[in-house]
Design goal:
The structure is a single chain. The protein is of the alpha/beta class. It is built from 10 helices and 8 strands. It starts with a strand and ends with a helix. 44% of the residues are buried. The structure holds 2-phosphoglycolic acid.
Length: 254
């Protein structure tokens, strides 16, 4: 079984002192936790100070977005290559980028390729809106986001990318998916990955659940057999809550 992965997406939150304090608080709580891979994902400008705060620990870092091109005249954009020596992970296709910033499936796919070209690992987010779920289209939507998102890559190892299933209606709403919904979709994603990459390969790909994960519901969500971790928003800004989620993932791994 692959090591579970819990990532904290800080979104557009924290000042510089708050970011370094948060990283330090998490370091104190999670330094000894080796059963779970833990990733802190601060806003762009705090990535270097946060990485410095984590030096000497096993805690990884990532960023929330990147552009598709390696360099050039793209004012305001940041390439995946720029993070190659700084962090390991880049979130791609988060629902806030798809729905608030209007990113298309094609743009998301190009970003997945860019992240892998830079030797980093994408956390590809997929998930349906409430309207799509009510219309019983959740599985179709996720299948199509997955096949287009991974369409242009030929991963050599299951460690090279992570999938985050994040139902849009569960993000920041306090209403997480039920264990049955999270497990059902994670199993579906694994079988879709199996068709594309082979079942043995798919078995080892890490599939996170994200959407209102907190210290309480993490215990049962992390125990779902096909859920290999969490992508955490709001609760990742609270050191005790995030540490409790990481511990819930660790106890589900043992
Ligand atoms: P949330 O956000 O935990 O605040 O619901 C999750 C996410 O957007 O990754």
């Amino acid at each position: 079984m692959s090591r579970k992965i819990v990532a904290g997406n800080w979104k557009m939150n924290t000042t510089l002192p708050e970011a370094t304090d948060l990283a330090r608080a998490l370091r104190e709580r999670l330094e000894q936790e080796s059963d779970v891979e833990t990733v802190l994902i601060p806003p762009f400008p705090w990535i270097v100070p946060v990485v410095l705060e984590l030096e000497g620990t096993d805690i990884r870092a990532g960023v929330q977005n990147c552009y598709t091109e390696p360099s050039g005249a793209y004012t305001g954009e940041v390439s995946a290559e720029m993070f190659a020596d700084i962090c390991e992970y880049i979130i791609v296709g988060h629902s806030e980028r798809r729905h608030v910033l209007g990113e298309t499936d094609e743009f998301v796919a190009a970003k997945v390729q860019a992240v892998m070209r830079a030797g980093l690992r994408p956390i590809l987010c997929v998930g349906e809106t409430l309207e799509e779920r009510d219309a019983e289209r959740a599985y179709d939507v996720v299948a199509s986001q997955l096949s287009s998102g991974l369409g242009g890559i030929e991963p050599q190892s299951p460690e090279e990318f992570v999938i985050a299933y994040e139902p849009v209606w569960a993000i920041g709403t306090g209403r997480s998916a039920s264990e049955d919904d999270a497990q059902g979709m994670a199993a579906f994603i694994r079988s879709a990955l199996g068709e594309r990459l082979g079942p043995e390969f798919a078995k080892e790909v890490r599939i996170q659940y994200g959407g209102s994960v907190n210290a309480e519901n993490a215990v049962s969500l992390m125990a779902c057999p096909d859920v290999d971790g969490a992508l955490v928003g709001g609760a990742s800004l609270k050191p005790d809550d995030f540490a409790a989620i990481v511990r819930a993932a660790a106890s589900a791994s043992n």
